[in-house]
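Re: the 435-residue chain
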Amino acid sequence: MMRFLAALLVLVTLALPRPASALVSIDVTEGQARALPIAIPYFAAPPNEVALGQQIASVVEADLTSSGLFRAVDRAAFISPTMGTADVPRFGDWRAIGAEALVTGQVVPEADGRLRVEFRLWDPLQEQQIVGQQFFTTPDNWRRVAHIVADAIYERMTGEKGYFDTRIVFVGESGPKTARVKRLAIMDQDGANLKYLTDGSSLVLTPRFSPAGQTVTYMSYEGAQPQVFLLNVETGQRQILGNFDNMSFAPRFSPDGRRVVLSLQEGGNSNLFEMDLGTRQLRRLTETPAIDTAPSYSPDGSQIVFESDRGGSQQLYVMSAGGGGATRISFGDGRYSTPVWSPRGDLIAFTKQGGGRFSIGVMAPDGSGERLLTTGYHNEGPTWAPNGRVLAFFRESGGPSGGASVYTVDITGRNERRLDTGTLASDPAWSPTRQ
């Protein structure tokens, strides 16, 4: 990671951009029914790097179109499939094929072995440059640079942070349904660079990223009872969070990464506890004759949302992060579970079960404004992209040959997509934006 940080550097804005409000932009407040047509020719490159220029442009295009906010103009309509940054575009040509935004780019090998990747975002309607940036990196990091370019374009056009330079950790599943092997896996948000983190010899569940994005916490059935582990996904080093007398469930980091909140079994019930990762001291947060589990901190760390059957059915509750009195926030028909607080703090995502169907929905932290985004045979386990505009979840199909797959959907309920995980997959957790 540090090697990459040393190699990647935003040097300069290549020309002074005009204020975004004066140019073409996308309003994501209520979703985007019409995707913005954007033209992305291959990035210009010397003869021995032509393929790299094509690959970077293709990843940028795939990222932007996956958001549902952009529609790629067919390259077959371009006068030239490749365009560098040296010249000002012939804007009329791009308007003629319907492009309302244009990205040009350049890949330049440096004498020290690094690559310089630069791009410019143009508004063909106003005939102006919107933004231009350049980066240095090592050749093996070209995909990350492509994601960073896509993030820059997304932010400039929407006013929201991008989420393309991120990863997703999940449970990769294989084998027959009655004897499924479950391994911890990690990949880029677009499915690239898939890597397994455990060997499948033990069942794993509920992976969750730390705020720094280098460590995940998860459950593993390696011994007589499940234990919570911490795993550094960069080094592979791991450790047991603590030796608990009873089963432990649903660990999740605090926003500052210094604590983990989890559920510990107590007889037929379970309660919430918080562990300080520096001292390994455990603090009780709830004490009820009920099943309290699936805790998730608010972004400022002051509150926790969790699920509990203390009222007779599985519902969502919010309490202070220090424990104590909890307020029920879910009151619709059915059962609510797996709540997770949005990184923006404005919404709580959840799973809702009712009428033989499972839905993924969102509501305000006070329980108001409940909206269901997607419904299916078995949808579960929402996780937020770091910009709080997109959710990932898993959907399990029925029948003896059924299995789970990971999907994404935006908070308007539009643009539902199945991710390519290379195998059956469940319980995704989205990383923070990489540093």
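The longest strand covers residues 128-137.
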